[in-house]
Amino acid sequence: MMPKYGWADYDASRNSLSDFIEKIYGNDATQHLEALAAMIKNKYSETWIYREDLSYFPNK
Prior knowledge:
Blueprint (H helix, E strand, L loop, with lengths): L16 H9 L3 H11 L21
């Protein structure tokens, strides 16, 4: 698992999601971004931290 801080982290040749959409759809980019935003129902992120006191593996 590698953290990504934004769309630009996936590929150095793309500056942002809106730049990527504009490159594909041209002047209709705003419409497509609005449609994409309307499709997102919810968003969440998780952070996992190893805790030895909760581990099933005994200390070695």
